[in-house]
Amino acid sequence: MKSPKQTTLDSKIIEKLGGLLPPGKALEMAKLLLKDSEIQALQDYANSVSIKRLSYNDHGPVHMRTVALNALIMMGLLRSAGIQTSLEKEDSGSFEDSLTALLLAAILHDTGMSVGRQDHELHSCYLAYPIMDRLLAQVFPASMDRRVTIRSLALEGISGHMGNRPINSLEAGVLLVADGCDMQKGRARIPMALADRPKVGDIHKYSANSIEDVKIGKGREKPIRIDISMSSEVGLFQIEEVLLQKIAASTARPYIELYALVTGNEPKRYL
Q: What is the pTM (predicted TM-score) of this model?
């Protein structure tokens, strides 16, 4: 069953898509993804493994929807700045195809956490593949070439979302940064509550718990500006060891400004 937070994010994703494109294939795909029972079950179990078994942050349906929304916001900002997606530049597809691939990748990128943390991005690929085939056949029944292109691009995004494998498309780079931007303290709320003793890796929970807000908007010098506010300096770990590493590995890096603010201090510019 969907949580109220999931339902709210579903509405925001549909609304954001409506601001980027007239109703079409991307919207059709979004609606299928957000109501699919197999995806919901995979996301729920991935979150259970992540939080209850591994004591990690949220890697479930709320996180994956948040990443999808982040990616759509960034794609809109890039388009407003006149920057084409890789599919557009290569004459391999349209902006809508790029959005469709990003939606698939975002909603499915952490399903591999249902197997385990190590190589979860690769587990996500083989779990996502048949689901993508099933949904793409519904949305593009008469176009094998289009299905293959979108599926391949989505798989690149999923396999590269940890920043430890080279990616080449702008779309995959956007997903990488969109994933890194979901670091607010809500992701650490349940693991913090369940913690009964200190463990290696707790810095991820404590640092995420200090992040008050992450805003993605139009930059002054570049198309995208990311503003992060935090209650204490421990949140700098999330920025410097997680988000900055992902941005450095992203094809979207040249288009991003990054600012961080600790309550009571001046904002610090990283990029």
A: 0.92
